[in-house]
Design brief:
The protein is α+β, with helices and mostly antiparallel strands. The protein is built from eleven helices and four strands; from the N terminus they run E-E-E-E-H-H-H-H-H-H-H-H-H-H-H. The protein has a four-stranded antiparallel sheet.
Length: about 280
């Protein structure tokens, strides 16, 4: 491969066999190099395929504004998320998280603190992502010698959750509000607090996350006759009554009609949650 453009000592662009641009990062990769020189492949640390023109331009702007150490620590955070969550992330996530971290550090150094209004909910509903956010703060302290508040662990967690949603999905703030509203309906219906460490609580929250995504995308679970739901109603009338309240809330707020299958799954989770 030959260099087509030098951004700085650590970043270059090349053209692949299909004449599509690649961005290559590596310490000292472009030291005393110029367009036309051969790439030292031993120094390559990461390669980005910039097929999306909008992402390509954003990334190039980022390269000029953000020091390499921010890109390196972001890469470590993403590797941590990959290992803990068992899924991959797109290059656009790398760009957005790098940009956020750089901006967050700049804000903190200037004394501009921003409270995370969803911090409490993120801790409860997105525990794995929040744990990664906390570990990310430790990495930032080690690598950049900057100490960020816990609110930033929540912001990083939000980025991770958003990265798992498709482009048609809303952001984590909208999904979190739906989860919180439904949990409040259940809480006040039964007039009880929940064991947030229980497996049934975790299962219910997980179900609600996917339910909220279906809600915003107007994706429906296949419906069938009401036999199973009616049978469950006979055995657990309280859970079904609570589910009907959830159904009314969803219809009023989103003009979304929950199918019998959806109501059955909700009722089952509600019953598990409130069972002692």
């Amino acid at each position: 491969m030959r260099i087509t453009r030098v951004f700085n000592n650590n970043v270059i662009s090349v053209l692949d066999d299909k004449q599509e641009e690649l961005i290559i990062i590596g310490k000292g990769l472009a030291w005393q190099k110029k367009p036309g020189d051969i790439v030292d492949e031993e120094k390559i640390e990461k390669i980005f395929e910039l097929k999306n023109k909008d992402i390509s331009q954003k990334f190039k702007t980022l390269l000029y504004e953000v020091p390499l150490e921010y890109m390196e620590v972001t890469e470590e955070i993403i590797k941590l998320a990959k290992n803990k969550l068992g899924r991959s992330f797109t290059d656009s996530f790398y760009i957005s998280l790098t940009d956020h971290i750089h901006f967050a550090v700049d804000r903190i150094q200037k004394g501009h603190l921003i409270n995370n209004a969803l911090l409490w909910e993120i801790k409860r509903f997105y525990r794995d992502e929040f744990t990664i956010g906390k570990e990310a703060l430790q990495l930032l302290k080690q690598k950049l010698n900057v100490e960020l508040p816990e609110d930033e662990a929540g912001f990083i967690a939000m980025h991770i959750v958003n990265a798992g949603l498709s482009e048609e999905m809303p952001n984590v703030a909208n999904i979190t509000k739906v989860i919180q509203d439904i949990m409040n309906i259940v809480k006040y219906h039964y007039k009880m607090e929940f064991d947030e460490e229980s497996l049934n609580y975790f299962r219910f929250i997980t179900h609600l996350k996917f339910f909220a995504q279906r809600l915003y995308s107007k994706t429906y679970l296949a419906d069938d006759d009401s036999f199973l739901f009616d049978a469950f109603r006979q055995k657990h009338p309280g859970s079904v009554e609570c589910t009907e309240k959830i159904t009314e809330y969803i219809k009023k707020q989103f003009d979304y009609s929950i199918t019998n299958n959806e109501k059955l799954y909700l009722a089952i989770h509600v019953q598990r949650l409130v069972s002692r």
